Amino acid sequence: MKIHEVRALSTDAIQAKLNDTKEELMKLRFQMTSGELSDFTRLRQTRQDIARLQTVLNERQRNPESEENNE
């Protein structure tokens, strides 16, 4: 997921996507521990997606006027 795609989402959609992505990361970590995970790049990508989502949420919390301009 690219940053411009995240910024195009509403705050509620970002929050929902963040929850889903965190759940996915938990499942990937469990798979890694049990030896079922074969594609370790998904771990890195998922962590980066979480960071992007949290970054945009933090930006919107610090500057609520920018959210009104984006929608």
The percentage helix is over 70%
Q: CATH fold name, please?
A: Helix Hairpins
Measured on Cα atoms, how large is the radius of gyration? 14 Å
Strand content: under 5%
Number of strands: 0
What is the approximate shape? elongated
Which whole number gives the mean pLDDT?
91
Helical stretch count? 4
* Largest sheet geometry: none
Distance between the termini: 19 Å
Secondary structure category: mainly alpha
Element pattern in H and E:
HHHH
In total, the number of domains comes to 1
CATH architecture: Orthogonal Bundle
In the CATH scheme, the class would be Mainly Alpha
Poorly predicted runs are none
Element layout with pairings:
Elements: H1 3-7, H2 11-34, H3 41-62, H4 64-70
Helix pairs in contact: 2-3, 3-4
Would you write up a description of this structure?
The chain is mostly helical and 71 residues long. It has a single domain, classed as Helix Hairpins (Orthogonal Bundle). Helix content is 82%, strand content 0%. It contains four helices and no strands. Helix 2 runs antiparallel to helix 3 (41-62) and helix 3 crosses helix 4 (64-70). The longest helix is centred in the N-terminal third of the chain and has 24 residues, at 11-34. The two termini are 19 Å apart. The model has no long low-confidence stretch (mean pLDDT 91).
What are its keywords?
Helix Hairpins, mainly alpha, elongated, 4 helices, about 70 residues, about 0% strand
Q: Can you describe this structure in just a few lines?
A:
The protein is an all-alpha fold and 71 residues long. It has helices at residues 3-7, 11-34, 41-62, 64-70.
